Amino acid sequence: GAVVSQHPSWVICKSGTSVKIECRSLDFQATTMFWYRQFPKQSLMLMATSNEGSKATYEQGVEKDKFLINHASLTLSTLTVTSAHPEDSSFYICSARDLWSGRGVDYEQYFGPGTRLTVT
Amino acid sequence: AQKVTQAQTEISVVEKEDVTLDCVYETRDTTYYLFWYKQPPSGELVFLIRRNSFDEQNEISGRYSWNFQKSTSSFNFTITASQVVDSAVYFCAQVGFQGAQKLVFGQGTRLTINP
Predict the structure, then answer these.
(1) Which residues of B touch A (CB under 8 A)?
(2) pLDDT over 90 at B14, yes or no
């Protein structure tokens, strides 16, 4: 149980285009989802927190108009990188937490496998 | 403010050696959780352990063991008789029960086990 998937696992796009990354909780309802970004040889940095049905909360320094997050259902959150540029190339990881079934009581987040974005 | 420090950026040992990865954390929360994750070259985070701040008992799982010292705010991870498959980046992380409840990661330690 507690499986989180991400799609696509990797994507290459041209500068100026938009890319959408999906994060799905496969066997539980994710009341909260998190989006992280990881540059090569660096740690994971939290970009934003999204709760189902409400607007995402972005970390300081993260452009909310560039990184659009939608958490429209209890099993799906999407991250859209708008007008992507080479500096947006990174590994994007989502995680999910369910506060209502006991899975989230222990504050454990279930991580997706990540999406590697390359902007040329 | 929360902060997790993994002072060892890279460690390289020969197979079968024991190796300890250090983790020191800072938090104002009185109750919190600590985690260790493994990130192999594929990139997917692998959960290793979660420790509640109330529970200072050390834990052993096979070749892995963890030493939680609340007095020194440390949560160190030891691999005994290391194997090549242990090569990965290891992250220590912390989340507090109060406030924003964000998971904060350390910088990571890249462990290389040489045959």
Answers:
(1) 33, 35, 37, 42-45, 47, 50, 52, 91, 95, 97, 100-108, 110
(2) yes
